[in-house]
Amino acid sequence: MLRKLPGTLTLIAVFTGLSATASHSRESQVRDFITRWNAAYTRLDAVGLAALETPDFELVDRFGHWIKSTGPEYNRQLWAKTFKEIYHLKPGPARHIESIRFLTPQLAVVQARANHPDGVILDDGTRIPPFWELNTYTLVKTAAGWRVTLLNIHNQMDAGTEGPGQRMPEVSQGTKD
User: Fold this and answer.
1) Of residues 56 and 162, which shows the higher confidence score?
2) In Å, what is the CA distance from 47 to each residue of 75, 76, 78?
3) What is the pTM of this model?
């Protein structure tokens, strides 16, 4: 029995090393994906963004609108319209990865932060004060590489700078009856 121990330990060490290498490779691929996403996003490249999405891409935008794609052309048109009508052809900030979590080797959740230090001025002149947003990307590994299947954007306001209707409701700690 003791003679088999060194062989068993060697196999465990090799398997652990291979697993760590695969995990590092997946993380590297996901980081590269977000770099490509940022490049397309900050270039206002609707075609490039659509190419990084699955055909059934879904977006929950910063206003809570749930947008379901009908395919790559829809995705391209969505970004083109967004860049023209909302961003007024001025790029938004790049996203910086906060965390990557692999649910399976082919499914990852990425939390990325974008900072808007000057705030945003809306078409009607309303000024949104400086804020940051947290983007949650759900990525799937496809034959073509990692693709985003769901993007959820969460605006984050600093306490006290929110405008009417933007405040987080108070939650009572209450007592048990």
Assistant:
1) 56
2) 8, 5, 10
3) 0.74
